[in-house]
């Protein structure tokens, strides 16, 4: 902490996403952005100058901060997070948590031993529309959840598969909405193409269907929850929620003709707009400052990674059905 009580923070990896972490930290009165680090020194200097901080090597940065965002390619997450934790630094690591669940379990144990905060950056948890959905769910007897995360190929470098890069967002949301385990997982993909659909049966009876794609010509980020009382749709992009309640079917006479008409009631609950990344970082800072558990824990990140692996295995072996016989 600084003399005025601000948390000393840094960012490791200032590519397209890491630069936004630096921006949010720099604009917060609750923290002091001590510096940024990147293997591309020119990039680190550019981002540091933009946000009034310093470009530092990783070792120097970790010795100077209380908490750090790790925003590097997934294959480097485990080693850099371990380095940070061993330097007694709390960590916000972007999703996916790690590429090896065993390494993730080791990192969780290390953070616990050192009483450090370890948060995984599942950013959609902090989307205001998802927050509004969480408020509605207690009123519902949920039957099914459908998620679609579609779009054209991205122009940024990304070595993660479509399940690990895109579908993982909705897997995390599905797991976070219900106190349930996954009983069975089915999945299939288009041969050679980044387009996958997975079906998950939860042990509470809820059926989840998720599709992720990088080959569609329309960007879609939508979630729908079907219950006995209503159907709730969430648009992640517009941060909007609609509640579709009971239809009133009937026949009406129009110009001498008898026509069938079905009317429904659509409610639009108020959604407090806001940048999900800012909410995520504010939650992390609060967790470190107050010594409380992160809103998205390492265990949460691990559960999502384990499901990613199961779905990827099912896509590779279309005849496989992955049955879960115990809780994760």
TrEMBL record:
Residues 155-309 form the Gfo/Idh/MocA-like oxidoreductase C-terminal domain. This is Gfo/Idh/MocA family oxidoreductase. Gene3D superfamilies: Dihydrodipicolinate Reductase, domain 2 (3.30.360.10), NAD(P)-binding Rossmann-like Domain (3.40.50.720). InterPro entries: Gfo/Idh/MocA-like_OxRdtase_C, Gfo/Idh/MocA-like_OxRdtase_N, Gfo/Idh/MocA_Oxidoreductases, NAD(P)-bd_dom_sf. Residues 7-122 form the Gfo/Idh/MocA-like oxidoreductase N-terminal domain. One of its GO terms (molecular function) is nucleotide binding. It holds the Pfam family GFO_IDH_MocA_C. It comes from the Archaea.
